[in-house]
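User: Some background: our group keeps a shared notebook of sequences we're curious about, and every so often someone picks one and asks for a predicted structure to add to the entry. Today it's my turn. The entry only has the sequence so far, pasted here. Could you supply the structure so I can complete it?
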Amino acid sequence: MLSPNELPRLQREQFHHDKRNHSDIMCLPKPDRLKHYGLHFAKYVGRLARDSAEPKTQKQTLVDTLLVSLSAANTLHQNLASIGMPPARRTDQIDPLRVFADAAGRFADACEKLDHLEDSFALARSANIDILNWVIATAGEQKLDLVDALHGRRKELATRASCKTSGIERAVGISRPVGGGLADAFRSMTTPDWRLLTQFPLASVSCRSTRVGPWWRAAAT
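Assistant: Of course. Here's the predicted structure to add to the notebook entry:
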């Protein structure tokens, strides 16, 4: 069973993983980032509800849920070192999936309230802790090594992000640095291991968010 003492390390590792492999999400404003994570939680509830009709295994979904919960904790500035052991299963919930669905629904509620300029971060933090506790308890019941599975899943995602970046570069015709401007900005923002920062300083790229989404602007050179 995953120990609460391991959570701070996993949380730090998730921050660095997201920065390297999910820069498109990390560039979003926090409200939009939280909505993205809320959609992930809803997707995972759907996966579990489909049961045997869902091609992805419950193990995969548990690991994906943990990844997103760690990312949400970083966005919400939660210190996972203080959550302690997960509480016992609720006796008023016959189906354990309902515990996850309940917490995912409260997280979505918090995200929806942000559009009305309501302060809902406390609600989101509480829901995220409940999701995290549900993952830990369920994995413990299934004798699943979450840490090992988490590391394996991160490697898969890093490989996928690298392939995606290579495909984007080929599509826009970028084979090497082209001397500054938007192409270099885009390349430096989408390269997972940030190899090009020596050629294009991060300080010269600004990431802004508008009503239609994020956009990048290269400083004049």
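Suggested note for the entry: The chain is about 60% helix and 5% strand. Helices lie at 7-21, 23-26, 30-50, 58-75, 96-115, 121-141, 146-171, 182-190.
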